[in-house]
């Protein structure tokens, strides 16, 4: 059996503020917090259910936001891609901008089908095509 991806970790200056952004962006909740560290993820599973789910197949990872002193200085080597599920790509971009995201320039040509944004601390992520009914079908 292989390993499972269970958490993503993101260094930041203000874990509480960044947790608020990502919880609003993903419709997640704060799962745990301690000084300088906040874990966020999907709501609704207790630890036993989550352990069984991870053992039986892939599950959505949680995200740990950890306080660090140093600033982000270069483009992320890894980033998150988001796919809207209940609105168009343009509507989702506008929603995320209203939550505090900004447009990010990482060398796009202008021909991309995705939009590159950055969270309030400058971590890049992409908004992909919409998976909403009427926008995407198999």
From TrEMBL:
<feature type="domain" description="Glyoxalase-like">
    <location>
        <begin position="8"/>
        <end position="128"/>
    </location>
</feature>
<dbReference type="Pfam" id="PF18029">
    <property type="entry name" value="Glyoxalase_6"/>
</dbReference>
<protein>
    <submittedName>
        <fullName>VOC family protein</fullName>
    </submittedName>
</protein>
<dbReference type="InterPro" id="IPR041581">
    <property type="entry name" value="Glyoxalase_6"/>
</dbReference>
<dbReference type="InterPro" id="IPR029068">
    <property type="entry name" value="Glyas_Bleomycin-R_OHBP_Dase"/>
</dbReference>
């Amino acid at each position: 059996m292989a390993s499972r991806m269970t958490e993503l970790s993101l260094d930041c200056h203000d874990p509480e503020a960044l947790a608020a952004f990502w919880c609003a962006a993903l419709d997640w909740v704060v799962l745990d917090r301690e000084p300088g560290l906040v874990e966020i993820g999907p709501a609704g599973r207790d630890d036993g259910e989550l352990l069984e789910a991870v053992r039986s197949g892939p599950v959505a990872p949680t995200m740990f936001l950890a306080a660090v002193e140093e600033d982000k200085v270069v483009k992320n080597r890894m980033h998150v891609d988001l796919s809207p599920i209940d609105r168009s790509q343009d509507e989702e971009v506008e929603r995320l901008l209203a939550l505090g995201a900004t447009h990010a320039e990482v060398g796009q040509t202008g021909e991309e089908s995705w939009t590159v944004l950055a969270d309030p601390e400058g971590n890049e992520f992409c908004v992909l095509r919409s998976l909403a009914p009427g926008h995407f079908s198999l």
